[in-house]
Amino acid sequence: MEKAYVSPQMIILIFCTLLCICESRFTRVRRGIDLSSTYSLISDTRLPGDFIPLNYTLDLRPNLSESTFTGKVRIIVQCNETSDRITLNAHQELHIERSDIKLKRVLEQEDSDELNSTDVRIRRASHTPKKSVFVIYLVDTVKNGTVLDLEIGFNGMIWESAEGLFKGSYLDKNGTKTEFLATMFKPNNARRLFPCFDEPAFKEAFEVSISRPKDYHTLFNTDPFSTEPLDGEPGTVVDHFNLIPGISTFSLGFLMSKLVVVKDETLPEGQEQKVKVYCQPGMEKAFPTLYEKIHNIQKALEGFWGSEYPICNLNIVALPGLTTVKPIDNWGLIVFKENELLQASYFTIAQEMVYQWIGHSTTPEWWNDAHITRAVAGFLAATIAQEYTEEFDEKWPMTVLYSIYYEFSKRYPHSRITGMKQESICSKTELLLRMINYTMGYETFRKAMQNFYEDRRCRTFQSEDIWNALTIQAHRDQVLDKSITVNEIAESWISKDRLPVVTVDRNYDKKEAVVSQKVYLRERPHDVPEQDKMRWFIPLIVVTEDKLDFTETRPRLWMEKSREATLAGLPEASKFIIVNPEEIGPFPVNYDVHNWNLLAEFLQTETGRSSIPIYTKAKLLHDAWNLAYGGHLSFATAFNMTLFMKDEKDHLVWSPVFTMIDHIGRHIDSSEVHNKFETYVRILLTPLYERLGSEAQPSEEHWKENLRSLSKTFLCRAGYRPCIERAQAAFAIWRKAADPDAETPVENQYICPVFKWGTMEEWEFGLERVINFPQNRKQNERTYLLKNLAGCPVQTEKIERLLNITILEENGNFTENDVFLIFSMLTGGSNGYTTLFNFLSNNWDTIKQRFESKTNLWDSLISSSTGIFTTQEGYDMVSALYVKHQGEFGSAEHIIEKSLKNIKEETKWSHENLPVIENWLDEYLKTANTSASKFMG
């Protein structure tokens, strides 16, 4: 009988794994939150679970020059349920011959390190059609508890795209092409390289060997313990790596390259370097502060988790030529794009390092719990970044908050795009963790997460395990009433594609307020199904003017999914209150008009601006504008809240202003109010821009550069004369260039002002550059020019000229994608979509004939030319077109019918709000300095 040697270490691991499997894999926790759609983009078939892996021995032979690989995997599997087949994962393009599969029954010998084995007969083996599933059919049924030794040989192609095992290249400092091999197994791409049980819940031991050319080296999850020549292949060696005690297949990873290690100058002489940064030769001095950041982050994470870094080594790589959108994180190996690591912030590095604890050490049991892993990573990374850097460029949490406020207030969030929904769920969960941290206290939060990690380390978890740990610790520390669980709180926030708006209506005589909650809707009409049934657990944290203490973050009370609650003990009528300061909870707050006016008046004082923190000022401004836009607040009140901005210097407070200008400006673009609004914008932004200066200063903060760029962009579009003059001067140089098509020597922010405010000749020059754009230049530069060429002009003749060339004359230099882009850009302003509408009306027969076989273009044209009007006049125009050509719209019939419904709704909004906006602007402009000397007419 043939015997197979298995090391004592591996035998111990097998039985430890069996114990873990018995404890965690088959003891199911009832789930409190159904997130089955969270990762629905990952199309995967769950394995039946009749066989489970105990450990892997993997031998890989990549061939870099031929872009192929061969390999052999040996998996010790246990029968968990009597079966006559073994089902595992293998990609359709992974080639497996029946003759390369061997299967034996394993019998342990007493007082021996050896295992007896007997052959198990295989009937057949094959891929399951259209699935990454491979089934080995057995002649005889195998009983529950049987341990088998499965060996499979395989081969395949190395991928060009970053999936499974892929190849890339870069030009080194000498201009020589240098290739590399890397893996990207997350979320379920290990099966592209070798047959395996490619589900996150299977956390098993791996013994891995990988061959490589002698002049390359391989970074893996662990360090190699030996290297030897590969028989029969001169110049090739095999690295044998240290055993990995137990990880999911997606945590495996390696990189084969010619990179070199950067010496850690922060370590005392002679101390072993366990953290290593790798880069291409010649770049070693380009990362002067990187090791300091890594060590600070590691120390912070070890303090948070109450546990040392969970693996012996950590390799962080700056890889030129990497094309993945995000860094590749494996256990002990994190691969960044070179340029990203060169400028990596604390946030960027910390976000990837968190996964070493939650993600790789403790792992989500299935992908619908992966959202909480990303949420924890985002929350901890932001916390660490705020601790170590004064300027946190990511502007967290505002960047996360504003995007989900906007998305969840739509009638149809995510536009039914699953990928966007996944991002929103992760962002909302991250903000939920932040809310829990504030309302229950950092120490309670940290202790709970430490308890969770200690309980689930080297195992798998469900999100319910985190909520349970937080509940237990919160009750133990008496920071949460025992009638409430964090599970209930989390469920109320995560399970809905919505957010609440909280309304605070004060009774000034009784010094009380009635607080109510309902679904926050910004997009009209507010007719979301079952919105009256939606409730959240909402913490009511209150700051009062007579006691401006923003450090007290414990709720006065929790709204326990109730429609209303009462806040008592409020100050007198002359003092304001602020609910949900610092955006502790992810929800906007509305007040009665008197409380809003008290806030507006206070912020116009120096004391007020300095005593209210930045996030709270930004929140008040953001909430007022968005509540007004959604019809929950008068625009007069919202405009009052901007009066303090003339003296505001902080960029975070300015952030919502630019969004407001864009949204409101677009909505009133076609009305007579627009010129008054544009004057208001000039008055608002000019002092800010002039205070910042027109040009960047050496070593200035990044936020100043961003704020200057935003204010310059908006002012230029509003006709700020100094900006227009600089833009036209730059354009004049370009027009005199010997070869104007060789490059675009004008700053991007100057392109639009020239096309908008410049002459017809300047616009025609831009048109020629688009038509003559060389094929060997980056085409995204042409796209940018075309976007501005179509979207910026306010002169009808420029837009008509472009439409004539692209549609009526069918100029061959413009593709169908260009025409789609033009239609899209013309929806950005009333001059654009009105001109497009008139162009369609005046040339109906010709255009209809041209687009007869181009349904998508026709549908896009009808949507762009009829769907953006917001006034009664616009409704009448579109309605007349619909009546005149009824029955001729074809595939776009439903589009114009939808346009008419939308315009009717927008007309109602305009009717209700434009008089209020105009009245406020008239009163404001009576006393404001409206000098137009610096602006175009």
Brief characterization of the structure:
With 937 residues, the chain is α+β, with helices and mostly antiparallel strands. It is built from 28 helices and 32 strands.
What share of residues are in beta strands?
Answer: 15-25%
Tell me the number of helical segments per DSSP (H or I, 4 or more residues long): 28
Please give the number of β-strands. 32
Q: Class by helix and strand content?
A: alpha+beta
Outline type: globular
Distance between the termini: 96 Å
Low-confidence stretches: 1-32, 34-41
The biggest sheet amounts to:
10 strands, mixed
User: What is the C-alpha radius of gyration, as a whole number of Å?
Assistant: 32 Å
Could you explain the architecture of this structure?
This protein is of the alpha+beta class. The protein is 41% helix and 20% strand. The strands form eight sheets. Strands 1, 2, 3, 5, 6, 9, 12, 14, 15 and 16 form a ten-stranded mixed beta sheet that branches. Strands 18-19-20-22-21 form a five-stranded mixed beta sheet. A four-stranded antiparallel beta sheet has the order 10-11-17-13, with no helix packed on it. It is globular and about 95 Å long. The termini are far apart.
Describe the SSE topology.
Elements: E1 3-5, H1 8-25, E2 51-63, E3 68-79, E4 83-89, E5 101-108, E6 114-119, E7 122-127, E8 133-142, E9 147-157, E10 164-171, E11 177-184, E12 204-213, E13 217-219, E14 224-229, E15 236-241, E16 244-247, E17 255-257, E18 260-262, E19 275-279, H2 290-305, E20 314-319, E21 328-330, E22 333-337, H3 338-342, H4 346-353, E23 363-364, H5 370-388, H6 398-408, H7 418-440, H8 442-456, E24 460-461, H9 463-476, H10 486-494, E25 500-507, E26 512-519, E27 537-540, E28 542-544, E29 557-560, E30 564-567, E31 577-579, E32 589-591, H11 593-603, H12 606-611, H13 614-629, H14 635-640, H15 651-667, H16 674-692, H17 702-717, H18 721-735, H19 748-757, H20 760-771, H21 779-791, H22 796-808, H23 816-826, H24 830-842, H25 844-850, H26 855-866, H27 872-884, H28 893-927
Parallel strand pairs: 2-12, 19-20, 20-22, 23-24, 25-32
Antiparallel strand pairs: 1-6, 2-3, 3-9, 4-8, 5-6, 5-9, 7-8, 10-11, 11-17, 12-15, 12-16, 13-17, 14-15, 18-19, 21-22, 25-26, 26-30, 27-29, 28-31
